[in-house]
Amino acid sequence: MRVVLLQIRLRLPSRTLKEKRAIVKSVLARARNRFNVSACESGVHEQPGDAELAFVTVADSTTRCRAVLQELEQTLASERLDLELTDVQVEEL
Fold first, then answer.
1. Which architecture, in CATH terms, is 2-92?
2. Angle at CA 6, nearest 5°, toward 92 and 24?
3. Residues 73, 68, 92, CA angle at the centre, nearest 5°?
4. Measured in whole angstroms, how far is the alpha carbon of residue 58 from the centre of its chain?
5. Is 44 left (phi over 0), alpha (psi -120 to 50) or beta?
6. CA–CA separation, 27 and 71 (whole Å)
7. In the chain, where the domains are located
8. Alpha-carbon distance 68 to 21, whole Å?
9. Which of 58, 59, 87, 60 lies closest to 73, judged by CA?
10. How would you write the pLDDT of the chain (93 residues) with one tens digit per residue?
11. In what order do the strands lie in the sheet with 50-59?
12. Which of 4, 31, 59, 68 is the most exposed place for a label (fewest CB within 10 A)?
């Protein structure tokens, strides 16, 4: 079994923490449901305009894990045009 972590930093169109929370919850729920990954907000909790999200998947091969996370990243970038991806890191655990 292989485990791969995807960390994404985002610039958000929110001005308050309440607006940020709504955007982050939506992105995380959609990723969990659509890609069957574990997801959480992993950092930058107190800044309304920025978010750091982490996604983890498990599969029988590293190639499959990376393919799922790459598809997630591409879907996020193409469907949520209001969000700007500022940094993306992939790590095998």
1. 2-Layer Sandwich (3.30)
2. 155
3. 90
4. 15
5. left
6. 14
7. 2-92
8. 25
9. 87
10. 899 999 999 999 999 999 999 999 999 999 999 999 999 999 888 899 999 999 999 999 999 999 999 999 999 999 999 999 999 999 998
11. 38-43, 50-59, 2-11, 84-92
12. 59
Distance CA 51, CA 59 (A): 27
Angle of helix 62-79 versus helix 17-35 axis, rounded to 10: 130
Strand 2-11 and strand 38-43: the pairing is unpaired
Percent helix, strand, coil in the chain (nearest 5)? 40, 40, 25
